Amino acid sequence: MSKPLNPPSSGMTPEVPASVGASASAAAVADPHIREERVPPTVPAADGPARRRTGPSGRWLLGLALLGGLALFAVLGPWWTGIDPAAQDLRQSLAPPSWAHPLGTDLLGRSVLSRLTHAARLSLLVAVMATLSAALPGVLLGLWAAWRGGTTERAVVMLADAMLALPALLLVLLFAALAPGELWALYAGLSLGLWVEYFRVSRAQARPVLHGPGVEAARLLGLSRWTVWRHHLLPAVWPVVARLLPLSVGQSVLSLSALGFIGVGMPPPTAELGLMMTEYLPHYEEAPWLLPAPIALLLLLVLGLWLVTSSDAAGADPSHDAEARP
């Protein structure tokens, strides 16, 4: 009579003969499918390079803090100072910085800090409005030209090339000559000179997307034009447009300041950065604290825009990390 086999108890590993274990290991080594099942998938480390690219960099945060501080200075500064930027007090002519006037006064006794806050508000407001007014029609026109193609696209491209033949600052000068001292003329000239850039970028980004398999499949399925634009074209164009927007704002502020500096911008006694530099330049020896104020504001604005745009581009381009990696 044969002896019955007892099943292994719970929690105990059954004994496997050495010959069976050796044959299973040999089969696992010989069969690649078995080896792939036993090897766990490679998971990138949580603190690896891929994760570092997705997070905001220190330069981007510093640039954003600078721009945010300037925006608060332009919005809340006039309310905080509470001084009329055109109020004159000849007894305080060219007064040095004090508690009443932290940045001193100019030749007519006007508070430099109050004029600086109003100038920052004016320049940023006109620059942002001009940029948005140029970006919206420029992007839509570029997408429409790429969508239609043919004669329509060539006609719009010829118009854009003709606009590029004229420098943007010259267009602003022409509008300023038509309506001297009018803010709308400067705004219209800036918008007219900026839309071409958005048209060319959006058209260049949309053309390969329109010839891609995603748009072709959407057309075969009979999806509407708005659906194709919303799911294919706009997501492809938006990253590039988002990088252009801060650069256009900075370009507009510098253009307004240049026009004010040469005397074709806003007329006195308007508080404007370029006009302030023109008024303070003759007194740089007797009142050296006047001229650095508008220059420092422009430098901080350009530095903030450069930090934001350069850090964003570095994080979005994988080749940048590959080149920077030793």
TrEMBL record:
<keyword id="KW-0812">Transmembrane</keyword>
<dbReference type="InterPro" id="IPR050366">
    <property type="entry name" value="BP-dependent_transpt_permease"/>
</dbReference>
<dbReference type="InterPro" id="IPR000515">
    <property type="entry name" value="MetI-like"/>
</dbReference>
<comment type="similarity">
    <text>Belongs to the binding-protein-dependent transport system permease family.</text>
</comment>
<feature type="compositionally biased region" description="Low complexity">
    <location>
        <begin position="16"/>
        <end position="30"/>
    </location>
</feature>
<feature type="region of interest" description="Disordered">
    <location>
        <begin position="1"/>
        <end position="53"/>
    </location>
</feature>
<feature type="transmembrane region" description="Helical">
    <location>
        <begin position="156"/>
        <end position="178"/>
    </location>
</feature>
<keyword id="KW-0472">Membrane</keyword>
<feature type="transmembrane region" description="Helical">
    <location>
        <begin position="244"/>
        <end position="267"/>
    </location>
</feature>
<keyword id="KW-1133">Transmembrane helix</keyword>
<feature type="domain" description="ABC transmembrane type-1">
    <location>
        <begin position="120"/>
        <end position="309"/>
    </location>
</feature>
<feature type="transmembrane region" description="Helical">
    <location>
        <begin position="184"/>
        <end position="201"/>
    </location>
</feature>
<feature type="transmembrane region" description="Helical">
    <location>
        <begin position="60"/>
        <end position="80"/>
    </location>
</feature>
<keyword id="KW-1003">Cell membrane</keyword>
<protein>
    <submittedName>
        <fullName>ABC transporter permease</fullName>
    </submittedName>
</protein>
<dbReference type="Pfam" id="PF00528">
    <property type="entry name" value="BPD_transp_1"/>
</dbReference>
<dbReference type="InterPro" id="IPR035906">
    <property type="entry name" value="MetI-like_sf"/>
</dbReference>
<feature type="transmembrane region" description="Helical">
    <location>
        <begin position="122"/>
        <end position="144"/>
    </location>
</feature>
<keyword id="KW-0813">Transport</keyword>
<feature type="transmembrane region" description="Helical">
    <location>
        <begin position="287"/>
        <end position="308"/>
    </location>
</feature>
